[in-house]
Backbone:
């Protein structure tokens, strides 16, 4: 899933190569509201993804399925285990005031010291802070990033993959766990931050969907940039960098640990998590 389009593809792996057969593509847009809010057209996204999965399942001898998407956006899950409320788009103007208030309250140094994530007003931490007066926030049992929201719908399992979780600016990137002290200091409900899993984890098996039942759902790097970087055939990571160009262009390196020193903070460099314990130290340009 990209921020303006999506696709469903069949991946085939043999001893020499990986091939992709794209079986479904679609466009989608944000839906402006009368009060200035921006929502994703979740019904369309959901419908298009499910159509694509059924097309793929009919065309191949399927083994497993995985989803990735753009970062930071999420849906609330109620105590009744249902998606609750609308899904706000990351460019919603509500985030600007929330960002200013949280950073003023905690200070840039405190936030960056454990998260290592660049300061952007749409990071999930600020979106959640901006949601405090919404009934879906008050009644939420948890929240799930969009790929894990699909995983939940398909399997019933509620868990958050770490590469996307790092984009929230609420995860300790050194320990790869939620920074509960930071979350609570920001004034956000820490109890809605649920269990985490790494890329490669078996999430569960699809049940309740004719044509898809029995397929294993396996976690990829669900942050789309993390998935891209996982595919780079680095020779010597100490001498090589990458450029990833999509809705954003990103320039960075892959490391074994985050870089959160004063120079990194001053440059607003981000430390997003990658596969197999790696960190993507990068800059949005």
Residues:
């Amino acid at each position: 899933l990209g921020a303006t389009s999506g696709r469903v593809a069949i991946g085939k792996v043999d001893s020499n190569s990986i091939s992709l057969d794209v079986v479904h593509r679609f466009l989608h847009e944000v839906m402006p509201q009368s009060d200035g809010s921006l929502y994703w057209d979740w019904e369309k996204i959901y419908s298009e993804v499910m159509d694509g999965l059924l097309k793929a399942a009919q065309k191949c001898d399927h083994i497993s399925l995985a989803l990735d998407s753009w970062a930071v956006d999420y849906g609330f899950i109620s105590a009744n285990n249902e998606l609750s409320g609308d899904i706000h788009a990351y460019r919603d103007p509500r985030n600007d005031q929330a960002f200013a208030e949280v950073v003023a309250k905690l200070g840039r140094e405190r936030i960056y010291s454990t998260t290592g994530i660049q300061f952007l007003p749409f990071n999930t931490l600020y979106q959640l802070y901006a949601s405090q007066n919404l009934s879906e926030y008050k009644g939420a049992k948890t929240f799930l990033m969009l790929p894990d929201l699909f995983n939940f719908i398909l399997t019933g399992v509620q868990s958050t993959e770490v590469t996307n979780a790092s984009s929230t600016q609420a995860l300790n990137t050194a320990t790869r766990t939620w920074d509960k002290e930071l979350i609570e200091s920001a004034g956000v409900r820490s109890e809605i931050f649920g269990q985490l899993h790494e890329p490669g984890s078996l999430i569960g098996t699809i049940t309740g969907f004719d044509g898809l039942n029995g397929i294993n759902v396996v976690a990829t790097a669900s942050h789309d940039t993390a998935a891209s970087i996982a595919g780079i055939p680095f020779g010597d990571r100490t001498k090589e960098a990458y450029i990833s160009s999509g809705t954003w262009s990103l320039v960075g390196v892959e490391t074994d640990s985050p870089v959160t020193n004063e120079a990194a903070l001053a440059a607003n460099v981000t430390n997003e998590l990658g596969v197999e314990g790696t960190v993507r130290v990068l800059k949005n340009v």
About this structure: The longest helix spans residues 42-59. DSSP finds ten helices and 18 strands in the chain. The chain has a mean pLDDT of 96. The first strand starts at residue 5 and ends at 13.
